[in-house]
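Pasting as-is:
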Amino acid sequence: MAETTNAAKAPKPSFIKGLKAEFKKVVWPTQETVAKESATVVVVTILLGAVIALLDYVIKNGLNIILFLGQG
């Protein structure tokens, strides 16, 4: 059987101390960066919604034309 080493028995730092140490390493964005990125997300979401709505309209009307032509 393998023997345990002293490194395995070393005391572990508490979870809270480790969490605080990690939060000190985080580089938080500036307010200007957050505002720009939020505006970009909103604009892209609106544009993508418009594209999806347009495609839905075209497909729906295209299917209606095909279905009504098939009946006559």
